[in-house]
Amino acid sequence: MAPITVAAVHAAPEYLDVDRTIEKACGLIIEAGEQGADLIVFPEVFVPGFPYWINCYAPLVQVPMHARYANTSIDMSDAASLRPVQEAARRAETMVVLGINEREGGSLYNAQVFIDERGNIIGRHRKLQLTFAERTLWAQGDGSTLNVFDTKVGRLGGLICWEHTMNLARQALVGLGEQIHASSWPGLSTLAGFSDTFDDQVEAMTRNHALTSQSFVVVAQNPVNQQVLDVLEAALGPQEFLTTGGGWSAIIHPMTPYLAGPHTGLEEKILYATIDLEDITGVKMFVDSNGHYARGDILRLSVDDRAAVSVSRTSGNGVVPMVSGDPDFVE
Asked: Which residues form the CN hydrolase domain (predicted)?
């Protein structure tokens, strides 16, 4: 495969405004396409922005903002919901990994949407485990969205924020042959208690994943701009825990050198790097986490990739119909 160009978006959304944020995302996709990008990765829940209020106010007063957030979510069953982004990807002839606040029924999910260069949605990943106050807002994803996609740029997977601490989730992607990893995060280094640690955590986790998965890692984060603070304080009053700035975006080689970045702070930009998947072959001569370094004779990982359901129906005679996802199913 010829070398390809990957891009990481370091930019803030138009906070809690879906239409304007999608418009901004489309502009960034077109810009990246003009620069020859084959893949562009956006920060966590870029549409419509990370719910920073969950860490800044008492839970009971957050309810109206939670409802507002639900009303700024993306319903994937609505074919028109991401059509402008799909069209931008098609025009730019670039793949897109977009962080969204997804809604299904009455539940919200923190998700990455994968769009190919023809504008087709090829899949999504829902965050498996929510961190700290996130558990008050989002539902957990399940194993059915822990995927690696075979694309024109190679085998592409992704995780969101502190999912990178879930070593078994990372190993699941390794086992699926991941070559390029979309690593989506919010900017949290300006949050009280994280200013001295968050960037170091992101660096440690993403460089570790690059080496232990033998994949190229594209890290996309947003800075916190004044618009975020204005929206929070207009809705919920003064707060003292979050300031402007932050964000940490980079593109990392499987042997862990930086190919672009890290870039931090309020300056918005797209980071670019040209990568050659053939480099992975050389790294695997040292360590192959899906081969000679896996030690399957000692260590094994079992992944349940069935969609979780809360209701199952029985047939008229009381027998539960078996489906191909069930462990006891026999064709």
From this structure: 4-277
pLDDT of amino acid 315: 66
Question: Domains of the chain, with CATH numbers?
Answer: 4-284 (3.60.110.10)
Alpha helix segments (H runs only) across 6-103: 18-34, 63-70, 83-92
Are the C-beta atoms of 281 and 11 separated by less than 8 Å? no
pLDDT score, position 329 = 35
pLDDT score, position 319: 52
The dihedral over CA atoms of 217, 218, 219, 222, expressed in degrees to the nearest 10, equals: -170
pLDDT confidence of residue 316: 62
Distance separating alpha carbons of residues 164 and 217, to the nearest angstrom:
12
Residues 6+ apart with CB under 8 A from 45: 51, 99, 100, 101, 110, 186
Q: For residue 254, count CB atoms less than 10 angstroms from its CB and return exposed for 0-12, middle for 13-18, buried for 19 or more.
A: buried
Q: Which residues are catalytic?
A: 44, 127, 161
66 contacts 47 by C-beta, under 8 angstroms: no
Tokens of 161: 């924020």
**Distance between CA 93 and CA 252 in Å, rounded?**
23
Count of CA atoms in the C-beta half-sphere (13 A) of 41 = 31
pTM of the model: 0.93
What's the N-to-C CA distance of the chain in angstroms? Answer: 38
pLDDT given for residue 293 in this prediction = 95
* pLDDT at residue 297, rounded to an integer: 92
Inter-CA distances, 267 with 9, 52, 191, Å: 11, 20, 18
Residue with tokens 């299904």: 104
Q: Distance (Å, rounded) from C-alpha 218 to C-alpha 42?
A: 9
Question: 3-class DSSP state for residue 316?
Answer: coil
pLDDT for residue 322:
46
